[in-house]
Structure formats: C-alpha cells, structure tokens
C-alpha cells in the first residue's frame, strides 16, 4: 500500500483544489504503458485505495498500482524550484522520518 507524508498530503490537496473541477472527483495516480506515473482527475471506483487528508479524499489509485507501490511513500520537497511530489522507497512501508 502506498503511503503519503503530511507534506505530500498538503501538496496533493493544494493541487486538487487547482485542477479538479467536477464535484465528487479527486486526483488519481495512474501509470502509462512505459510505467511513468502521473495524476488525472477521476472518481472513486470499487477496490481503490484512497488517501485522505482533513476528512476528504485527496488521492486515489487502483488495487494493482497500490500493490505495485508497496513500500513506496509520496513526499513533497521544495529545492528552490517550487514544491514537487517525489517517491521515496521505504523498507517498512511507513512514512519516512524527517532528517
């Protein structure tokens, strides 16, 4: 199961508020044929993993992608070029601790 840090949740919520226009829709993490990940606006489907923040769903991903991302955590980092989402591999599947 994919995990998301608190910083990652804040960034996903911010992004969602800017790009998702349809009521009942939220961001969905998807993989293309080359295995690259991206975000689209979509609605929740049966067997989705949903990530919530402050009582609302901020990210969806299907069961297959969720299983493939076992031990991966989404974080938000800002290295001078603005915030960006990054994937971090963890040994435990838990959020990484701040350094």
Describe the structure.
The chain is of the alpha+beta class. The chain has a single domain, classed as Hypothetical Protein Aq_1857, Chain: A, CATH 2.60.300. It is 20% helix and 39% strand. It is built from two helices and seven strands, in the order βαββββαββ. The strands form three sheets. It has a three-stranded mixed sheet with strand order 1-6-7. A two-stranded antiparallel ribbon has the order 2-3. It has a two-stranded antiparallel sheet with strand order 4-5. The longest helix is centred in the first third of the chain and has 14 residues, at 6-19. The two termini are 23 Å apart.
**Sheet with the most strands, sense and barrel status:** 3 strands, mixed
Proper CATH architecture: Sandwich
Helix content: 10-25%
Q: Indicate the CATH topology.
A: Hypothetical Protein Aq_1857, Chain: A
The radius of gyration over CA amounts to 13 Å
What is the name of the CATH superfamily?
A: HesB-like domain
Total number of β-strand segments? Answer: 7
Total discrete domains: 1
Beta-strand content estimate? 35-45%
**Which residues sit in consecutive blocks of at least 5 with pLDDT less than 50?**
none
Strand-and-helix sequence, N→C?
EHEEEEHEE
Distance between the termini: 23 Å
Strand line-up of the largest beta sheet:
1-6-7
CATH C-level label: Mainly Beta
Shape: globular
Structural class: alpha+beta
What is the average of the pLDDT values?
89
């Amino acid at each position: 199961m994919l995990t998301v840090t608190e910083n990652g949740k804040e960034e996903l919520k911010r992004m969602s508020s800017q790009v998702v226009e349809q009521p009942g829709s939220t961001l969905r993490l998807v993989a293309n044929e080359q295995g690259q990940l991206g975000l689209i606006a979509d609605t929740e489907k049966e067997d989705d993993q949903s990530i919530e923040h402050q009582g609302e769903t901020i990210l969806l991903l299907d069961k297959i992608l969720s299983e493939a991302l076992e031990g991966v955590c989404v974080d938000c980092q800002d290295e001078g070029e603005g915030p960006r989402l990054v994937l971090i591999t963890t040994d435990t599947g838990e959020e990484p601790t701040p350094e």
